Amino acid sequence: MYIPPHQSISQQSLINIVGNTCPPILISGDFNSWSTLWGSAETNSRGKILENFILNEDLIILNNGSPTHFTTHKTFTHIDITLCSSQLAPLCAWKTLHDLYGSDHFPIHIRMTNNFPSTKPNYCPKFKLERANWTLYNKIINEKFAQIIPSDNINQQAAAVVKCIRSAANISIPQTKNNKFTARIVWWNHHLDTLRSRKQRLWHTFKRVRTDANLIEYKKCNALFRKAVKISKENCLKQFTSNINPTSTSQRIWNDIKKISGGNSYNSIKHIKVGTNILSNQIDIANHFEQFWSNLSATNFRTAKANSISHNYNPTTCNSLAEKIEVPINEIELETALSLVKGKTPGGDRISYPMLKPNTAGKVANTSTL
C-alpha cells in the first residue's frame, strides 16, 4: 500500500480496503504517517487516524522501532509500516536491512514461518540389530553375493557389495521409524507427562473392562490432569507477564510470545556485513567464512608446506613394516579384524559391524569378495 503525503485519508477509507479481504491479512507499505506506536518521535493527525484503524481492526504492528526512511533533511523517519492479523503476528519476523541499496527507503525483510522448523533435519532410520533375523539375513546375502559379476573396477565392485548387504538388511532387520516433530510447549512438565500417561492407561483399562469403578478411576485422573494443565498454564502466563515492563524491548516480548505459541527460534545467519558490503547469499557467506579462517591459519600452514616440499626426499630402502602394508589382505585377516571391533558404528551407508562379523551374522558368502 502507498499513501502519498498530501492525499487526505479517513479511517473509513482504510476499513473499506481491509473489508474486501479475508483474514488473516498482511499489509505493508509506505503510509507516510507518524506515530510513537511504530517508532516515530511524535504522532501527527494521519498517524492518529491510522492508530484508530489498527485498534478497531485488531491488527498488529510488526515494526520493531527501526527507522525505515532517510529523508532529504538527513533525518530518519518511520513511515513504512507492516500490519498483520493477530494470528499471524507470532509467526512473523520483521527487520530492516542496514543498506539503502540506492533508495531512500531501507529494504524491509519479513520472514513468516510456522511452528515447525523451516528446514527439517534429514532423518536416517537405523537398523534394530537386536531384533535381526540372522538366519534369513545369511540366506539372502549368500544368494545375492552369488549373483555379483566380478569386475576390475574397484568402485563398481564395492558398490555391488554394499547393495547386497543393504538389500538383505532391509528384508531381515527391522528399522526405526521417523518420529514426527512436535512443537515445544513451554508450560508442559514431567508431572503433566506422568498424569497423562496414567490417564491414558486408565482409559484403556476401562475400554477393556467397562465397570463403574474403572470409569470413576479414569474420571478422577482426568480431572487431576486437567487441573494440573490449567495451573501450569496460569503459572506460565504469570511468568510471561511479569517480564513485561516499560524497559522491555519489543524483540524480547515477541520472542516470549513465539515460545508460548510453541514456535522455535532459529538464529541462522541471514546476512553479514563485510566492510561496506552486505552479503546475503548463503554461498557468499560460506566463502567469506572459509577465506577468513583460512587466512588465520594460512601463515603457519603455508610455511610448513613450503619447508616440506623444498626438501627432496628420495628413499633408497623401504621399511619391512611398510612392505607388509602393501601385501593383499587375506580372508583370515579380515575375519580377525572384524571379530575384534566393538559396538555398531554404522557409517553413511548404514552398514554396521554386526552385519559383517562372522560370529554374529554368520560367514557372509565368500568373505574374499569383500
From TrEMBL:
<dbReference type="GO" id="GO:0003964">
    <property type="term" value="F:RNA-directed DNA polymerase activity"/>
</dbReference>
<feature type="domain" description="Endonuclease/exonuclease/phosphatase">
    <location>
        <begin position="1"/>
        <end position="108"/>
    </location>
</feature>
<protein>
    <submittedName>
        <fullName>RNA-directed DNA polymerase from mobile element jockey</fullName>
    </submittedName>
</protein>
<keyword id="KW-0808">Transferase</keyword>
<keyword id="KW-0695">RNA-directed DNA polymerase</keyword>
<keyword id="KW-0548">Nucleotidyltransferase</keyword>
<dbReference type="InterPro" id="IPR052560">
    <property type="entry name" value="RdDP_mobile_element"/>
</dbReference>
<dbReference type="InterPro" id="IPR005135">
    <property type="entry name" value="Endo/exonuclease/phosphatase"/>
</dbReference>
<dbReference type="Pfam" id="PF14529">
    <property type="entry name" value="Exo_endo_phos_2"/>
</dbReference>
<dbReference type="InterPro" id="IPR036691">
    <property type="entry name" value="Endo/exonu/phosph_ase_sf"/>
</dbReference>
